[in-house]
Request: fold
Amino acid sequence: MDLLVYKLELIKIKLLEVKNLKKEFYKGDKSIIEVLSDINFSVNKGECFVTIGPNGSGKTTLLRIIGLLESPTLGQIFYNKKDLTKISRKEKVEYRRKFSFVRQKPVVRNTTVFNNIAYGPKVRGMKYDEYQKLVNEIIEFIGLKGMENKNARSLSGGEMQRVAIAMNFVINPEIYLLDEVSANLDSMNIKLLDDFIMRIKQDKEKTIIMSTHDPLEAIKYADRIAVLNNGQITQIGRPNEIFTAPKDEFTALFVGYENILYGIAELDKTTGLSQIKVNDLIITASSQQEGEVKVCIRPESIGIVKEPPKNTSYRNTFKGAIENIRELGNICHLIVICKSEKFLIAITELSRKNLKLEIDSEVFINFKATDVKIL
Amino acid sequence: MANEIIEGILEGLRLIFTFDPEVWGVIEVSFRVSLTSTLLAALIALPIGSFIGLREFKGKKEVTNLINTFMGFPPVVMGLVIYLLLSRSGPFGVLGLLYSTSAMIIAQFLLAVPIIMGTAKAAIESVDPTLKETVLSLGANERQLWWELIKHSKKSIIAGFLVAFGQAISEVGAVMIVGGNIRWETRTFTTSIVLQTRMGEFGMAIALGVILITIAFIVNYGLTRLQTRVD
Amino acid sequence: MSTRKPLKQLISEHKTAVILALIIVVGGSIGTYFAIDYLNAQNPEKITLATTTSTYDSGLLDYLLPKFTEQTGIQIKVLSVGTGTAIQYGKDGNADVILVHSRSREDDFVNVSLGENGLPYGIHRACIMFNDFIIVGHETNPANLQSGDSITTVITKLRNAIDTGNMTFYSRGDDSGTHSKEKALWAGIGVVPATRWANQPDKYTETGQGMAATLLMTYEDVDAAHEGYTIVDRGTWLSFYEDYISLNILAESIVGEDLLLNPYGAIPVNPVLHPHVKFLSACRFVGFLTSPYGQTLINAYRKNNQILFHASFGTCNHNCSCSTTTDEITIWTPFQAEFADLIV
Reply:
């Protein structure tokens, strides 16, 4: 985990900085609706920045403003130190070409799949000979080979979304703006989308700003998360900060709690289980995966005992100490440090009293391999 | 009277199919004038109208109101205005264009411009805003966006053109005043029908009426096809 | 995927050139158009004649003009409108010559003191021909017009019948030559119909339309009581009398009376006032109309085997109490020379 953070710190170049952003809409009766207020954040080059929030929290508007499709009422957006709110119509086109914007509902032009995907390169002045190969490659990648000359509007919703993603991928932008792209997708298309996003994430020159209302998706892709509620950012931080230490009730209720760990997975051929090395700990997971992974364990899935457990079916057992206790009515959250890692554990207030768990108590935590979710 | 109508229709068909030079001359003038004026109007009104639809600017509401007002401009009044302008004692009298097809083209052009402009503007404005944003976000500049929206709303734009053409070819007041209904030169369907009726020559009047109705039918059929076609 | 470039691709990659070509083609053709019309307007071999519907609609001009063009090569564009409009076209310089029927207004047209900037609108009037007006009505004849009634008797009978509400008179009401004549007839017995029967369309209807429409309205009558009367020129009547079977001629000019006669005059527009008018060509046209050749042609014209117009140049002092006959002969004789050898 620290390794990644370190890596980020090293190449931390503020690519995009949003300052005091505010957006108001006028309703028909001249009353004002504040959609965004006092939004401040910055996005670094190569980062995947995720805004999470319920419907109507202003995620889409925020992305549209960054994508220069709408002007803010107040505030500035700096892109490489250039204020995007104070540029001419012509410059706007220039900057828009550095962005791509994939929306929740795919919109394709009323023409063939090929022409749709070729549109981005074409408006940038590329000639047919130059983009022809590129476009055909992408069509193959999205699995629509043979359908190049079909009208994109006659495709199914999933296929259309693939075309829409390909349209944005082919222009090779510096920042990808993805607005709830996984909503309404079937599992096969989610897999394809996942491939795309992972491909972008591997390229450290490319930045992603995405919005979602799905906490798991946020954990999966985000380097940093901003929680948006009612037009305001309530919390910004790394996924494990957000999910183990929500700042307010809204965040806690909306995103839920997750233990998020970063590690390297190895497949154990004999047991068919994965061994994930998370700094000093080795966690066993039932799903099979190799390489750099993110791991999630829900706080309710972790058991806690005072004595070393015997004859347990739990594959993962670690010794640790309670660092902090948060009482939340009937439930209470315990933060347990096991070697390098911190775990959030949720138990009932009653069992805490029965077990006589206090700060600094020495404890053992355990959880099943099947409860370890690899993203 | 019923007999007269049937006789008139038969006479009309005879005139059409024996290629009566007078009837075909009238057809030629009507089409030449109305097509030229509508095409010319389209050439000018389409870019301007679509541009107004594309951009947001101060005074757009006033401009829209103005276009809408002129869309219903009475053709006879337009004829009168053009007459006064082109009259030898008017400001453009030196050109000597009164009672020529040019004068008719000018009048019909001015009548067609607001119609085509208004429909082009409405067509562009009615395009799904998400498509507009998609095209923008793919990096289109204003000109490319404009072209894309034009292509997208070509059906409505063609419909506007057809409406303007239909109005031009069936209009009588303005062409009568500025064209003068001169035989072989500025006589159109409508002015000819007026004249033949006045002269009691219903055969030719009905012949031209039949052609005019056929044209109106074709234009309207085209319009309906355009509006109901599913892609 | 084939590497063939679709035509559409080619076009879209050379959009500017395509649009430019389009503009040049359209602009060029329109420009040519206007230029041709402009040059036509300057061509002395093309003149514009503003005339009344009665001369044009009767077919007389379609019969006369080709013969003039054949002789001189001059083409004539005919604007067929009401007398009032035709005179206005002449005043505005939109016509080179006018051929109308309203003697008093023709005289005003050539009157120096009624012109513009001390110049008359037209130069030298010429009597060309005359036809006559008739009064038509239904067989029921509620005004009880008798053949042989003098015109004063006829008009008085009509006035009385209108006053008692027994009939409806249909008036053109459009400032045409026929309308002027009608007003003159009423004035002869001291009646101003516009005030006497103001706002009483069941007694006196102003149609505001052409002769044919007015005739049709008389025929149909408002309440189908067959009480309609109107005044019509004989030419128009001959075009329609077969259709309107229940209408009859109830009064016409009797020998020795010229009140119902309808003289037509031609006047070239003043070239000093409107320098662009083709005065010489216009004068040659008037010369043609007044020449023995033209006059014979007018007399020879038949519609439905009926004589419509009677040539009257040089003789109108006899039949239309014209006072300028002698002057007209002096002025127009030179212009008739080129048609002297022609025979019908």
User: Anything to note?
Assistant: Chain C has three domains: 7-41, 42-130+261-339, 133-251. Residues 133-251 of chain C form a domain with the D-Maltodextrin-Binding Protein; domain 2 fold (CATH 3.40.190.10). The mean pLDDT of chain C is 87.
